């Protein structure tokens, strides 16, 4: 099959990697939630050879992710598992507990109830002192950070009224409620952010 392709992934992978290299310096088992096209996974895994990169998504996206993985030989890159936020997460290797989570461009796509379940899943599945990286656009004090983000939010809501750019304050409340602490808020290209949390 033709591999799915996202130009945005190509544009943002290097700035994201610069942060992940520091945040996941001591991580051993990172789960990517919503691997999408698979482009981030096949780029990050060889650049973070000390850890295992586990891809995941809904089953409908596995074929595309596997098409990218098929062209690699990275032993630390694992084929996708199903992570459905409406259901319990898969049981991962207890000898190698999850100590890192990465997700990009997911919180504004899924519904708010699923955002809540995402954070609940983090609390239930991560080892202590785990690091969490969340990439995407966010509003601050109820305001869009740019006109392009305002236009993007309108497009999202026309496509699915349950989606939309989230308010950072609401996201931080969810994180705090499940025992996560915001460590950094990095500015990223195209008016995006990379939030870094630690499990307390």
From TrEMBL:
A Pfam family this chain is assigned to: DUF938
Entry superkingdom: Bacteria
Name listed for the protein in its UniProt record: DUF938 domain-containing protein
Species annotation: Colwellia hornerae
């Amino acid at each position: 099959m033709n591999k799915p392709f996202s130009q945005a992934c190509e544009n943002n992978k290097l700035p994201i990697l610069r942060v992940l290299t520091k945040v996941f310096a001591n991580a051993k088992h990172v789960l990517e939630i919503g691997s999408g096209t698979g482009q981030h996974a096949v780029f990050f895994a060889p650049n973070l050879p000390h850890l295992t990169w586990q891809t995941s998504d809904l089953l409908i996206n596995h074929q595309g992710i596997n098409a990218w993985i098929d062209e690699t030989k990275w032993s630390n890159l694992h084929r996708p598992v199903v992570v459905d936020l409406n259901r319990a997460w898969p049981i991962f290797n207890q000898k190698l507990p999850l100590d890192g989570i990465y997700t990009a461009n997911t919180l504004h796509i899924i519904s708010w109830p699923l955002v809540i379940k995402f954070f609940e899943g983090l609390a239930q599945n991560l080892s202590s002192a785990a690091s969490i990286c969340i990439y995407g656009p966010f509003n601050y004090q109820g305001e869009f950070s740019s006109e392009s983000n305002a236009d993007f939010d309108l497009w999202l809501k026309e496509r699915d009224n349950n989606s939309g750019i989230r308010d950072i304050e609401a996201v931080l409340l969810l994180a705090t409620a499940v025992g996560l602490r915001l460590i950094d808020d990095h500015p990223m290209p195209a008016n995006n952010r990379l939030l870094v949390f630690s499990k307390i």
